[in-house]
Amino acid sequence: MILQSLNDYYERKRNSLPGFGIELKELPFLLVLKSDGTFLHIQDTRQGEGKLRRGRSFLVPQAVKKSVNVAANLLWGNSEYILGLPDPKKLVEQRQKGKEKHYRERLVQMCTEFRAEIARLPDDVRAGAGVSAVFTFLSRGDFAAVLADPLWPQLSADGANVSLKLAGEERPVCSDPGVLSVTEPAAPGGNGQDLCLITGRSDVIARLHPPIKGVWGSQTSGANIVSFNLPAFCSYGRQKGANAPVSKRAAFAYTTALNHLLSSKQRMQVGDASTVFWAASENRMESLLAKLFAEPSENDPDQGVNAVKELFDAPKAGTPAIYDDGTRFFVLGLAPNAARIAVRVWHVATVGALAGSIRQHFVDLDIVRASYVERPFLSLKALLLAVSPLGELEKLPPNLGGDFMKAILAGTPYPQTLLQAALRRIHAEQAKKDSKTGKHRDHVPYARAALIKAWLNRHVRNANPNTEREINMALDENNTNTGYRLGRLFAVLERVQEDANPGLNTTIRDSYFGSASSTPSAVFPTLMRRNQHHMTKLRKEKPGLYVNRDKLIQAICNDGIDGDRGFDTTLSLENQGRFVIGYYHQRQDFFKTVS
């Protein structure tokens, strides 16, 4: 279904995508020729600065699938194929291995095959001014002027793709309409065909599929979703692509569509998964989805907030309600896996159902926040960074980002590993201090608290909706859950310690937060005894505040957490999460009240 949906997307967008047998390719350098084949100079098409400097893209005949064999592209390629000149780095490597002779022999084969591809063109195309000039230039075999050009060192050092063009022309010879026209595959019919699994029609089957490029972390030359490179993957005597017959047309269509999506705005990075999305027909959600999840750009820092507002306000705006849109929508997440590409996420839903699930995601995340939080919008990256070790996404479990995304799109519970990761980060950072200011770092920041609250509410809604209550956005004094109450109590004990010792740089949080949230009975009796010393000091110096704090502690403990039952021996993972939210809610309530 994935390939079929991509094929359908190509058919929908074919007027704006390369035709069959054609692709869009960066050509950083062009060899400029006179009409008689005389070399003039090397043209640099690159634009931008530093690492962002990229060559101009042109429509070119689709690249051939290369392995160990020599196979040349039509009228474009690197200097090895076009001129038969060695790549400096490869030459050194082969010389060190004692294989320089073999490498030079291979260069001759590469150059010969490049010219043979030109010679195979129809007579009328080969007689064109551009192709004729190229053939004459290559036939002479004198490339001294090319080597003397100031740009040659850059061209050869980069191993860049190159083509040739006539002086005064805007496009290279390989982009000439006459050249591109010969790439159209033969019409269906005849012998040597099979039933295409994508289109359901008899057609010429692709032995090898074009590579998929743009998947973060995969090979720069591209990788495949469909490939059969070992005998163990083959059956019934079939070879390569014949094991899953896909026509050349369909293989071109789905790979072109996917490569286009991977380089478009309909793409976002979710953990290690390069995620693309599209609709069965033109739809607003195609441009909205990335804004709902992606990190806002510097040029448009409010894009996430505006996208969420549009999602929530759609029914109020007098426009067709997005929640009633029955258009099918597809989300595909791809991750590198050796020479292949692994599918991390594949989700199909109507636009309306998807909008409802995403809306619920943001409702679940909604939690009280401090006034200094400048960006209330939480992108997917911000949420994953909140639970990643050292703030590095690469250190997260490889499937976590994809599993999280699937849960958001489907409206299902978030993965348990997400809560575990959040609690680990809180425990790891409970005593961390800023290296510059020496003050405590926030171990339960807004993003982390929002994520835990959302995780717990989804868990309750799907597992125990009749026996447990969902967590409110702000402090809930009526919530009698043990974990939540203990978290509130810990926050009050910490605040009393701070009240009694202004300017204190180390609190009970540094040493006791992790154990208090997991094994309360081992910690809270000690904390309650120590609290009496702080309360005594507070009663002498700030009697009014003492009364307020004492009433608050008694109100929290009234439901038995420090009465006949005593403190729980251990807290479950879910109640550890409620402990964190109780602590966070109580701290936020302190910030908004005047002590």
Summarize the entry for a quick read.
The protein has 595 residues and is of the alpha+beta class. It has 22 helices and twelve strands. α1 packs across α10 (248-262), α18 (482-500) runs antiparallel to α19 (508-518) and α18 (482-500) crosses α20.
What order do the helices and strands come in, and which of them pair?
Layout: H1 2-13, E1 22-26, E2 29-33, E3 39-44, E4 57-61, E5 76-77, H2 79-83, H3 88-96, H4 100-119, H5 123-126, H6 129-140, H7 144-148, H8 152-158, E6 162-166, H9 177-181, E7 193-195, E8 202-204, H10 248-262, E9 267-270, E10 273-279, H11 285-293, H12 303-313, E11 328-337, E12 340-350, H13 351-365, H14 380-385, H15 400-410, H16 416-429, H17 446-463, H18 482-500, H19 508-518, H20 524-541, H21 543-557, H22 573-592
Parallel strand pairs: 2-6
Antiparallel strand pairs: 1-4, 2-3, 5-6, 7-8, 9-10, 10-11, 11-12
Helix pairs in contact: 1-10, 3-4, 11-12, 13-17, 16-17, 17-22, 18-19, 18-20, 18-21, 18-22, 20-21
Q: Can you walk me through this structure?
A:
The model has no long low-confidence stretch (mean pLDDT 87). With 595 residues, this protein is α+β, with helices and mostly antiparallel strands. A hairpin with a 2-residue loop joins strand 9 and strand 10. The strands form four sheets. A four-stranded mixed β-sheet has the order 3-2-6-5. The protein has three domains: 1-18 and 185-264, no CATH class; 21-181, no CATH class; 369-592, no CATH class. The two termini are 61 Å apart. It is built from 22 helices and twelve strands.
